Amino acid sequence: MKTNKVAHIFFDLDHTLWDFERNSALAFTEIFKKNDLQIDITTFLKTYIPINNFYWGKYRNNLVTKADLRYGRLNDTFTELAMQVSQEQIHNLSEDYIAHLPNNNYLFDDAQHTLEKLQQKYTLHVITNGFSEVQNLKLNNSKIDHYFRTITTSEEVGVKKPHPEIFEYALQKANAHPEQSVMIGDNIEADILGAEKFGMSSILFDGENVNDYSGKKVNQLKQLLEIL
């Protein structure tokens, strides 16, 4: 992929640069303690993570609202675990989780180093389906916001990846063209196929090496320096 044409690199944030699962687990540990909820965090996450992924899939396709996602993923998890948690407490936990999530900001290995090196050659940007108020805090608190010329969130645009409109909006904001742009993300549907449908190149970040994907793929962020 090393070519003089590439000038702009667009990153997803969660699960790509920002270690969402690690930071999320720490946030839940904090809010369960704060709310005096007795539950083993490992047991909770084993049930919660696939439910959360299911809701995010529905959210990407406009089948649930942000409020539905925030409440439903917790309600369904507690139901699956046969835990009696009131609606009021679930709403409180939902708000606490969003407030605590940006407090822990572990990045994937080599994120800072990779961004530092890439910034010397390319203009960097972010396109994220995450909630605007949280994503900006994550970028600032993890001290990587300064690497990016533009930040585009789905709430800002009104549509989510993989919808072509968010890529069109982000590239216009960045004054970039599809043929000179690369999208890097962890989600095949949202990041990879969405970008390619819009005419961009893409690279899958597969940190756990679990995706059977035949296109460009890295398991470590530092590998990007070898192919870009």
TrEMBL record:
It comes from the Bacteria. InterPro entries: HAD-like_sf (IPR036412), HAD-SF_hydro_IA (IPR006439), HAD-SF_hydro_IA_YjjG/PynA (IPR011951), HAD_sf (IPR023214), PGP-like_dom2 (IPR023198), Pyrimidine_5'-ntase_YjjG (IPR052550). Gene3D superfamilies: HAD superfamily/HAD-like, Putative phosphatase, domain 2. CDD domains: HAD_Neu5Ac-Pase_like. NCBIfam families: HAD-SF-IA-v1, HAD-SF-IA-v3, YjjG_YfnB. This is Noncanonical pyrimidine nucleotidase, YjjG family protein.
